[in-house]
Amino acid sequence: MDVPALGVRRRWSVLAVCALALFLVGLDTTIITTGLTQIGRGLAVDAAALSWVADAYTVVFASLLITAGALADRIGRRRVFRIGLLVFGASSLLCAVAGSLPMLIAARAFQGVGASMLSPVALAIVVNVMRDPRERAQAIGVWGAMFGLSMAAGPLTGGVLLTVFDWRALFWINVPVILVVLALVALVVPESRGQKIRRIDLPGQLLLIAILGIAVGLLIEGPRHGWQEVWVLPAIAGLVVLLWVFARVEQRRSEPLIDPGLFRVPSFTGAILGAVAVFVAFSMTLLLTTRIVQGSWEWTAIDAGVLILPMALGATVLAPVSGFLVGRYGPRPPLLGAGALLALGGACLLIAVETGQALVLMVAYLLVGSGIGLANAPITNTAVSGLPPDRAGVAGGTASSARQVGTAIGIALAGTLLADASPGQYAGASLPGWIIVAACGLLLITVGVLAARSTHPQRGG
């Protein structure tokens, strides 16, 4: 169901409302990093278990992205968008009043359900109202820049709230924003549905949730309890079996959640690996450095938030530049540049943490953020290039899920590295993390080489 053509002011008002929701989703991905230490103290739990506070949100978010988009096309995008806002607001309240770690983790998972209904659905709403290709490109550029802004606002807002209030304020802050967005949605956002309605792949959805949950659980709990524990091998075996079952189930469905056939296209597989790598590097950098700055360097939460601003600056400025480069020269130049920046960022992070120099850390943040900003547009382009138009939506949704999977893996790995370390040992314990960040950059360079062989500059970002 197409909506009638809207006026310019109304179209950009729709973009503003949807971008505000995206900002909120990104904010809750990063705001938690500055508060994990305080949450641990407030709930009297060890640091290793706190990775679940971040990953319960990202795992559920990643798992449900594609299904939420299909559901919105079926029953109405504005309707699902409103439901997502209500779920996100209610779960934020539950997070704020949580009296134990299990309750907080459950509330964060519930929050991930709401987030999955906001990000892809809001983008579909924007694309549906922006009919002119040039205006749509401008809108998507604004959309991409919101990621950098939310990345900046998360740690900084978290630092301010922790300085003035306590960790519960990290979740209370969502409630008034949700109320404002709900009111604006009622005023300016029209209802729309997809022209081609995809079936909901319930078996695939349940299998994907189980696979991601077990994989992240192994990364968090394995080092915490020891890989020699009796449950580890059965869990790994179960994960392998579930992956095999998932592939078989999806091959036999006419409209699978994730089409296994897409992974036979080298450029698509490379793009998915690249998306995971970029966000592993991002989340590891953010979580490890925040813990080091607050734990080892004994900086305040607000100082740690300010320190991260160069990362957000790099991501915000280079996101639209990347889209221009992809449109003019194809995905190869920005992918190679992004890979080089991430690799250099990993090297700078090692130097910064070993020497304790804040200026070097800010340079590292700028390099990593710039790499992230350059990478997003060509990754999406590479994922959909060479595929027929009717598969582009599934490919784009899979790439979006891969980004959240990368975030979850990075958070789990970061928590693993610092699990048994005291604040004075954080610098040494984080060394493998910086190697992983640099390796993610090298993987992205490889994706750039694959993209050069498989895609063409004429295809849009």
Automatic annotation (TrEMBL):
Predominant place of localization: membrane
CDD domains associated with the record: MFS_MMR_MDR_like
UniProt-recorded Gene Ontology molecular function terms: transmembrane transporter activity
Membrane topology label: Multi-pass membrane protein
Localization of this protein: Cell membrane
Alphabetized UniProt keyword annotations: Membrane, Transmembrane, Transmembrane helix, Transport
GO cellular component, one term: plasma membrane
Top-level taxonomic group: Bacteria
Protein name (database record): MFS transporter
Lineage, top ranks: Bacteria, Bacillati, Actinomycetota, Actinomycetes, Micrococcales
